[in-house]
């Protein structure tokens, strides 16, 4: 087993912004730490063909049976919310921080280069900070925690092998684990879905739809559709290869990505029928990501992602009264490889 060189670890951390993969990836599994893309949001990626390259930077995963890597995950979700009604307004700020370790294992490689893999959250901690500055935290390695519902979710997520089918181009075909989580949690706590697990796997060891032949400046597009508490959040991602270098004996390529977001509202996730009319608008939404890719092992050394959204919700009450809620949210996440074997 090789442990991450501390000098390279520091370099990766300094070079990148700290980021989230949202507890909407640990509360909907994050570590990692959210491929898509048809209008139904089935998680299967689609893209324009990658342009021809004159140099051979291979960004495809090198899937070797029995290979195992461990990643540390850090995520932070910050929300600034404002509400207004009848000329009065109030604001509140909350944050949720998640730390975790995840093991990624290649179980079986098929003749077409695709593979069956396993993703397992080894442990998970969550710290909540409320509007008044009060904090609560849970740790899956302990025997209890407060709030209990969050502790039960953290406990249910750890040690569970999530089966992931990977394509040869680094995109996630499917993930299976939601039913096992539901059995652990029961019916009183919302559980993550298999699409949430697909998102987590997408943001871990590979780069979706990566070309096998790339050069500095090579670009390609990928689209993703992930779960959102109000519907489906679509990403139109544009990747770019920005550098190739050797760090501490490891050949690395750096890839950046930027996406615009579109929110498709699901009425079933809004107040029940018969209640007041609700209008939801994504005022703005972007995702920025940076991946440092190990060209020897064909997997990510680390990645940072920042997602920023501003969502406006208008609730139309009787007598022409409108209550407006605005949520300005920043999700930051980092996944850093800490050992490999």
What are the main properties of this structure?
single chain; 341 residues; mainly beta; 13-stranded antiparallel sheet; 11% helix
- Count the domains: 1
Could you say which overall geometry the principal axes of the C-alpha atoms support?
globular
What is the average of the pLDDT values? Answer: 85
Sheet/helix structural class: mainly beta
Describe the main β-sheet briefly.
Answer: 13 strands, antiparallel
Can you tell me about this structure?
The chain is mainly beta and 341 residues long. The protein has one domain. The chain contains four helices and 13 strands. The protein has helices spanning 6-15, 148-157, 178-185, 194-202; strands at residues 2-3, 68-85, 88-109, 115-129, 135-139, 161-166, 172-176, 219-228, 231-247, 250-265, 277-294, 299-317, 321-340. Strands 1, 2, 3, 4, 5, 6, 7, 8, 9, 10, 11, 12 and 13 form a 13-stranded antiparallel beta sheet that branches. A hairpin with a 2-residue loop joins strand 8 (219-228) and strand 9 (231-247). The longest helix has 10 residues, at 6-15. The radius of gyration is 20 Å and the shape is globular.
């Amino acid at each position: 087993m090789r442990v991450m060189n501390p000098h390279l670890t520091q370099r990766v951390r300094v070079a990148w912004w700290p980021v989230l993969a949202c507890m909407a990836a640990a509360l909907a599994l994050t570590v990692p730490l959210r491929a898509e893309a048809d209008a139904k949001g089935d998680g299967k990626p689609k893209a324009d063909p990658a342009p021809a390259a004159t140099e051979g930077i291979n960004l495809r995963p090198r899937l070797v049976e029995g290979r195992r890597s461990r990643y540390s995950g850090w995520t932070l979700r910050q929300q600034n919310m404002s509400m207004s009604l009848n000329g009065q307004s109030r604001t509140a700020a909350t944050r949720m921080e998640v730390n975790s370790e995840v093991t990624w294992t290649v179980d079986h490689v098929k003749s077409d280069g695709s593979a069956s893999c396993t993703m397992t959250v080894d442990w998970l901690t969550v710290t909540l900070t409320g509007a008044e500055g009060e904090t609560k935290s849970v740790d899956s390695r302990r025997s209890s925690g407060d709030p209990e519902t969050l502790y039960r979710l953290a406990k249910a997520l750890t040690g569970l092998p999530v089966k992931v089918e990977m394509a040869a181009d680094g995109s996630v075909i499917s993930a299976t684990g939601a039913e096992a989580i539901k059995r652990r949690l029961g019916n009183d706590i919302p559980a993550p879905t298999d699409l949430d697990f697909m998102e987590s796997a997408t943001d871990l060891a590979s780069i979706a739809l990566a070309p096998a032949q790339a050069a500095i400046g090579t670009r390609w597009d990928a689209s993703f559709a992930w779960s959102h508490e109000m519907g489906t959040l679509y990403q139109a991602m544009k990747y770019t290869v920005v550098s190739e270098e050797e760090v501490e004996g490891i050949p690395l390529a750096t890839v950046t990505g930027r996406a615009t977001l579109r929110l498709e509202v699901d009425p079933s996730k809004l107040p029940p029928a018969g209640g007041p009319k609700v209008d939801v608008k994504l005022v703005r939404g972007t995702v920025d990501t940076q991946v440092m890719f190990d060209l020897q092992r064909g997997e990510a050394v680390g990645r940072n992602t920042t997602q920023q959204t501003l969502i406006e919700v208008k609730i139309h009450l009787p007598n022409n009264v409108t209550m407006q809620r605005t949520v300005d949210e920043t999700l930051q996440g980092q996944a850093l490889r800490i050992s490999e074997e």
